[in-house]
Design a protein that fits this description.
The protein is α+β, with helices and mostly antiparallel strands. It has one domain (2-11, 52-320). It contains six helices and 22 strands. The strands form five sheets. Strands 1, 3, 4, 5, 6, 15, 16, 17, 18 and 19 form a ten-stranded antiparallel β-sheet that branches. Helix 1 (18-32) packs antiparallel against helix 2. It is globular, with a radius of gyration of 19 Å. Residues 139-319 form the Phosphodiester glycosidase domain. Keywords: Glycosidase, Hydrolase. It holds the Pfam family NAGPA.
Length: 321
């Protein structure tokens, strides 16, 4: 295993906008009829439930201060009174089996320094922007893609101490304001109960891949979504995960994939072993594939799909700076 600091961010190339994709989909609808119209409405067309998230959180949230402390970026590190961040690159294997992972070791002064933001400052389904775009909008010094809550209508979604959705469906991850993090069963509780217990953020994707320092059994067989498309998370894939080393000490990992010779991707077990090697006693898988992205100091750290092109996502986890 070779661990280094990333030397530069890959050049960002042009990407098809959602407007172009939507126009193409509309043409397809006209050609194929009603069934496709349903799929387009369900998986492509924006459905806005909250039009101004910042205003909604101001009206419904706690008094946690969203203003970051002044910090200093030096190469691949960031230091402030709020957070300490160190970015490194881990390379294993060689040839077509090479795997490239990007690691952010993060220590927080307070758990509420880790925040979430939604694409276009809106909450709903099919609302997307790239991780870089969302990070720039909120002034993030560090960000990774979130759980892509907007692809589905289920799950418990609590962000920045505010409840957005309460439809328990799967194994979730809860970040508490006191700094500890727990894997939990969404179907055995409610968003209000979690909020009352001090939960600051939740993620609804999974599965948990490390618990009590051990790789979880059966993680290669988990399906996150049972609706149309994207239900299987098996095989060697690009991945994003968050791990817990201690209270207020987290590690975020983005593994690139589908790029033989640069990074093949990893299985769920392979991701768990990476997290375990970094000292995580708990680790949780979040949205991967083309969504897997890490941004630091305004630059894309990883190389999504080996093409330097970000895919739109619903949400990010970030630290302001």
């Amino acid at each position: 295993m070779r661990r280094t600091s990333p030397t530069h961010a890959p050049r960002r190339r042009g990407r098809r906008t959602r407007r172009t994709l939507l126009a193409s989909a509309l043409v397809l609808v006209l050609a194929l009829g009603g069934g496709t119209a349903w799929a387009l409405d369900r998986y492509v067309v924006d459905h806005v439930e909250i039009a101004d998230v910042q205003a909604y959180e101001a009206a419904n949230g706690t008094a946690a201060d969203a203003t970051p402390a002044d910090g200093t970026v030096t190469g691949t590190t960031y230091e402030s009174d709020d957070a300490s961040i160190s970015i490194s690159t881990v390379v294993t294997g060689s040839g077509d089996d090479q795997v490239t992972a990007y690691v952010a070791d993060v220590t927080l002064s307070d758990a509420t320094v880790l925040r979430s933001a939604f694409a276009q400052n809106q909450f709903g389904t099919n609302i997307t922007a790239t991780t870089s775009e969302i990070a720039e909008e909120v002034g993030a010094v560090f960000a990774v893609n979130g759980d892509y809550y907007g692809f589905r209508s289920t799950g418990i979604v609590i962000r920045n101490g505010v409840v957005y959705r309460d439809e328990g469906a799967r194994e979730g991850l809860a970040f508490y304001a006191d700094g500890h993090v727990e894997v939990y069963d969404e179907t055995a509780t409610t968003a209000d109960a979690l909020l009352a217990a001090g939960v600051w953020n939740t993620l609804s994707f999974g599965p948990a891949i490390v618990e009590d320092g051990a790789v979880v059994d059966g993680i290669e067989d988990v399906e996150v979504d049972t609706n149309v498309g994207n239900h299987s998370i098996q095989g060697e894939q690009p991945r994003t995960a968050v791990g817990v080393i201690d209270d207020n000490h987290l590690v975020f990992v983005v593994v690139d994939g589908r790029s033989p010779g640069y990074s093949a991707g990893v299985t769920m077990t392979g991701l768990a072993e990476i997290m375990q090697s970094l000292g995580a006693t708990t680790a949780y898988n979040i949205d991967g594939g083309g969504s897997s992205t890490m941004v630091f100091d305004g630059e894309l750290v990883n190389d999504p799909l080996g093409k330097g092109v970000e895919r739109g996502t619903s949400d990010i986890l970030y630290i302001g700076g």
